[in-house]
Write a structure and sequence with these properties.
Helix 5 crosses helix 10 (323-333). The chain has helices at 17-34, 60-67, 87-102, 124-138, 191-201, 219-236, 247-256, 262-280, 300-307, 323-333, 336-339, 346-349, 361-369, 375-384; strands spanning 4-9, 41-46, 49-54, 73-82, 108-115, 143-144, 151-157, 161-164, 168-169, 181-185, 205-212, 239-245, 286-287, 314-315, 387-391. The longest helix is centred in the C-terminal third of the chain and has 19 residues, at 262-280. It has 392 residues and is an alpha/beta fold. The radius of gyration is 27 Å and the shape is elongated. The two termini are 31 Å apart. The strands form 2 sheets. Strands 1, 2, 3, 4, 5, 6, 7, 8 and 9 form a 9-stranded mixed β-sheet that branches. Strands 14-13-10-11-12-15 form a 6-stranded mixed β-sheet. It has 2 domains: 4-169, 2-Layer Sandwich (VC0802-like), CATH 3.30.2130.30; 181-391, Rossmann fold, CATH 3.40.50.620. The structure holds adenosine-5'-triphosphate and magnesium ion. Adenosine-5'-triphosphate binds next to helix 5, strand 11 and helix 12.
Amino acid sequence: MFQAFLIKYGEIGIKGKNRHLFEEALMQQIRHALKDVDGEFEVTREQGRIYVEAAAELDYEEALERLQRVFGIVGICPVVIAEDKGFEKLAEDVIAYLKERYGGRPMTFKVQTRRARKDYPIPSMEVNAALGERILQAFPQMKVDVHQPELLLNVEIRKKINIYSDVIPGPGGMPVGTSGKGTLLLSGGIDSPVAGYMIAKRGVTVNAVYFHAPPYTSDRAKQKVVDLAKIVARYAGPITLKIVNFTEIQMYIYEKCPHEELTIIMRRYMMRIAEHFAKESASLGLITGESIGQVASQTMQSLAATDEVCRMPVYRPLIGFDKQEIIDVSERIGTYETSILPYEDCCTIFVAKHPVTKPNVKVIRRSEEKLKERIDEMVKTAIETAETVEVE
Ligand code: ATP
Ligand code: MG
């Protein structure tokens, strides 16, 4: 029954020039989201609103599902389009719509007409009253309530006439592409995909880096990360994923440095390498899935020790989340099932029984001195041999 969607978006902070950028980015994201959905959608902007109209038979369920993943959308109104063939025909169409959509359920209602086309012969107020009357005749069990109606029936008169009454919630946030780019350290765990989702929700375009340690981590572990990137990409749009072979560096650290410092030193090298790719892709920051106190390597002291090697800001969208809160988001966005698949993780393999929880940066730097001989060359090789996967 529906042939179009009216898209509602938040307007806070998008005044002036920003508004135009916001709308352009939102339209682009909508087009991308609907690219392979049946309906030949046309996305247009008129008078501060965005319309998505199907030129062909549309897959309504799929289109709606996709739109519900586009950041920046606050509400989605499915629209029925009627020809403008006079008031009688309009009244018939409205009654047919209400019958099909609500089956004549008793409810209070209000008609809200907008004449976007000012040459329409009947003023909005009169359309409201006349339509209201017809609705009451057709459905005597319904009642008018102009203050708090259960059903707000919108009728917009333009070249054709739009009829809609539902507002389905969108994900909110900012359209991806309006806030610059960030580089996500993406592992196979629960947290980092959620961190990627959350930063994308603020309009940030996401690139990702995964540190792989074959043969200690398997091809399946790598595939799991690609799969997670795919799920995040449903919300964030296309993601360029760099897969870095980290084995040599990890072994070298293991060989030269105190084992209880392994995790923190490894993390510092991950950050350094990630920052290289971040710069290369013009990212403005690094993103991780860390939250204070979750594990030994995520105390404030540990986070300070990892930050120390970065010039770029490190964003940690989950910083104040409890594990259960992170799990709740991951279930909602669909990454959880993949995240909990039991493949090994490069950080857990060499992990010490008693890792330092309050690393002293000076001590860590001194330990890293022991890597002096070969580490630069190893980092260079890791960067040069990284594999690039374009994830859609
Ligand atoms: P996650 O569920 O995201 O793996 P975690 O609780 O297992 O998180 P850690 O293993 O301590 O936490 O990792 C902390 C953060 O460091 C991760 O959220 C991620 O951003 C990054 N990270 C860890 N391991 C890797 C890896 N192999 N490749 C890329 N990033 C990683
Ligand atoms: Mg992990």
